[in-house]
C-alpha cells in the first residue's frame, strides 16, 4: 500500500492551460504535479519533482473523459474530396521538398567543414546505395 502525504481535491489544485498540468503546493517548497493526460488515463497520484512525497488526487473520472478523437480523424469534417486530395498532394510535396532540400544541405555543410576536402563523389556515394 502506498503512503500518501495527503489527499487533495482536484478543485483545490491550480491548472496551467499551457502545460496542461495540475499543481498543488508541496511542503518542501516545490509543487505536486499531475498531467491532464495522466488523469485521462485514470492516474490519481500527483508527485513532487523535488522530494519523495506524493498526494492522492480526488476527482470524478466522469468529469475527465478523454476528448472524442473520432472527430479529430478528419481534419476538416466538411472538406470536399477534391480539396482533401489537393491537401494530401501538398503534404506529399512538402515531405519530398524537405528531404530533397535537407540532404544536399547536410552534404554541403559536411563538405565545407571537412579538412582536407573530400571528393564530391565520396560524399554522395552513400546516397547511391
UniProtKB/TrEMBL annotation:
Residues 4-60 form the DPH-type MB domain. Keywords: Iron, Membrane, Metal-binding, Mitochondrion, Mitochondrion outer membrane, Protein transport, Transmembrane, Transmembrane helix, Transport. Pfam families: Tom7 (PF08038), Zn_ribbon_CSL (PF05207). Transmembrane segments: none annotated. GO terms for biological process: protein histidyl modification to diphthamide; protein import into mitochondrial matrix. The keyword Glycoprotein does not apply. It is a single-pass membrane protein. This is Diphthamide biosynthesis protein 3. It comes from Synchytrium endobioticum.
Amino acid at each position: 500500500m502506498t503512503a500518501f502525504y495527503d489527499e487533495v481535491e482536484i478543485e483545490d489544485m491550480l491548472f496551467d492551460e499551457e502545460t496542461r498540468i495540475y499543481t498543488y503546493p508541496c511542503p518542501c517548497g516545490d509543487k505536486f504535479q499531475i498531467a491532464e493526460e495522466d488523469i485521462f488515463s485514470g492516474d490519481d497520484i500527483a508527485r513532487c519533482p523535488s522530494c519523495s512525497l506524493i498526494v492522492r488526487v480526488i476527482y470524478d473520472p466522469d468529469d475527465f473523459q478523454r476528448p472524442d478523437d473520432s472527430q479529430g480523424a478528419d481534419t476538416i469534417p466538411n472538406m470536399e474530396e477534391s480539396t482533401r486530395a489537393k491537401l494530401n498532394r501538398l503534404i506529399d510535396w512538402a515531405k519530398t521538398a524537405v528531404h530533397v532540400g535537407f540532404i544536399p544541405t547536410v552534404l554541403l555543410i559536411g563538405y565545407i567543414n571537412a579538412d582536407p576536402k573530400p571528393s564530391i563523389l565520396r560524399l554522395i556515394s552513400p546516397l547511391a546505395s
